[in-house]
């Protein structure tokens, strides 16, 4: 049962809204798409708008990009993701992992992002091979740290190396990564300077943004906009006919290990 205002209920019952340009062109109201994807092997996906799964024509030709949001615990990965999706900041988020879908038009390219927000606890609980599979699934990466948490910043070089080793071995193209320093509003608790963040990103050939997911939508938008700009057309496959159902299936296939978490 969907609560009247699902955003008040935390990640566990989170629903995200996606707009279909195809529908807008046809004069229909934007669709609210319930994307509630506990990543369990046996997870079943029950769309509230089944029609969205069957959209033929132009919507099926959208470019798509799989984005993995990574980082230490409590840095604001979910806050940033939810800000981008909904323009809202809801304060507390549960510990479920989700894949959200959201459209963004950048430089005339309409991109359907599939954004996988992995809670740190889950990231740690998984064997390394699960992380590797998540990395293989993704076309691009958002690495978040908190400007108030030095340790969350210090782990980034290793994460970037790990991603590059996994992805760039397979392709000549650079892997699109943006590094995000979050919680910019907490000036008095800052322990990582903007300069350090920028230099690290430069040295690792990544994009860089400092934002406050708590304070503004704009920063979150800039992050995903910047990421999209780093994704070459060749990576943005026209995944014809790959509908949400296909994505869910492929995610189930990724996870061979059965999860015990319940909804
Ligand atoms: N002040 C401030 N607090 C923030 C900001 N972003 C997130 N928070 C808070 O930081 C805490 C952690 O946010 P989450 O989005 O759950 O962080 P996460 O990285 O997804 O955490 P894990 O699920 O542990 O991996 C929550 O209490 C948020 O309200 C921000 O920009 N500013």
UniProtKB/TrEMBL annotation:
Record field: catalytic activity: GTP + H2O = GDP + phosphate + H(+)
One matching Pfam family is Ras
Entry EC no(s): 3.6.5.2
InterPro entries recorded for this chain?
P-loop_NTPase (IPR027417), Ras-related_GTPase (IPR051065), Small_GTP-bd (IPR005225), Small_GTPase (IPR001806)
- Per the record's keyword annotation, is DNA repair included, yes or no? no
Q: Does the keyword Nucleotide-binding apply?
A: yes
EC category: hydrolase
Name the keywords, alphabetized: GTP-binding, Hydrolase, Nucleotide-binding
SMART domains linked to this entry: RAB (SM00175), RAS (SM00173), RHO (SM00174)
Q: Which GO terms describe its molecular function?
A: G protein activity; GTP binding
- Protein family per UniProt: Belongs to the small GTPase superfamily. Ras family.
Q: Write down what this protein is called.
A: small monomeric GTPase
Protein's gene:
LOC112995982
